[in-house]
Amino acid sequence: MNKQQVKKIELGTFIGLTMALCATVRSIPTLAAVGWTLVFYTIFAVVFFAGPISLISGELSTMLPQEGGPQLWVKTALGSKWGFVVAWLLWVQMFPGMVMVASTLGPLLGNTFGNVELGENHWFVLACILIIYWTITILNLKFDMAKIGGKVGVWLGVYIPVLVMFILGIFAFIKVGLVSNGYLGTFSWSKIVPDLQHMDSFKYLAGITFIFVGMEMSSVYMPRLKDATKNYSKGIFISLIGLVLLNVINAMFVANVVPKGTMELSNITQPILIYCQILGLPSFIGNIFSFMVFLGVLLQLSAWVTGPSKTIIQVAREGLLPPKFGFHRENKYGVSRNVVLTQTIVISLFSLLYGVMDDVNAVFLTLTNATTIIYSIVYILIAIAIIKLRKDQPNFPRPYRIGKKGNGLAYTVSIMLILGITVVVFATIGTSTVADAILVSLISISMFVIPLIIYRFKNDNWLTEIKRELDQ
Question: GO MF annotations for this entry (predicted)?
Fold first, then answer.
């Protein structure tokens, strides 16, 4: 084994890698839309969601360092059925999730050409999603797009836009101070805590929580992290502070200048244009910003087309899916044609919401809520898994352990996660319109039930047939 392979990751590098997993500009308008209450919601998301899942993932990933991640953890604790359910949910959450991400392309393209109204047109947004997603799907089948676009996409779609937004936001705030008609308005301590009599802002809680979805993936770096037992918790804590500051400060600047009642959740260029207006800067800065983020999102989408499908290829090869699906077959780039085409067809069906509903903000919020709730089911299963493994395998080596001795702290952290998810789900459903609540519930329940039905009818011949084909 060469030195490059065993080189340890320093704490600073680990913090950067962890932040990169969750860093995004897409969630900033959602966070800004709740005004001063964003402080309370962000603390809630960190304490009851991001923090617990990071600590739990740290223990489980060192306990079970083999490839598989959440699917392996749940499978070891709760059996192959629930491991399959986790693998399935991690795949299908991208159906509404990718539509949500791709929905930003329409407004970005409209702003690139200085046509803001075009980006707000739901038919234009739908056309952009369908044309662009099918194009990058075909390209992924022909070329190694994940290798081509991943790193460049993060810079264009995340790092540079966040920095530009932050700098413009600071200068705009220095010039105008607190704007009375913005989402922030004048400050009072009472505005930080949600008003339980007017619970409208609760509908954004899932979207705010979604900022931290993916934190568990940082656990993959544990085996290579220098002095992991001490540095993992420290790195996660610092990363969370960094993410909170990055999102909260930017969201506060945005909430200050966007006039109340006009926030466009899927249009990240809106605050940039307002900043330019305040600072007397040319509007073409907004055009350049839009085009840059458009390219970044495009490249990131391309990289994500094949990523989640790897898990489904693996479970198909374990005989958990019918051979006739063809999900076990890969091309020379490690891409399963049938998996990628299936997910693109389903994503296209989800995108038709933009044809049925003309309120772009409402569709964006519905898709965000559905994605968050599907992902939350995975997190509940992970929380149950650590409790079960602590009970059934108390002496199993745990290089990183929540609490030096006893199970009290691990159980508390797990219960906090389950409690946090319960609050998010009820807040989302309870504050949505009846139609939206039914739609989000149907999406989430159906995505959860489908793998249970498939597993119920699982046939031992599936594995035999798949192995025979792969051995040829």
Answer: transmembrane transporter activity
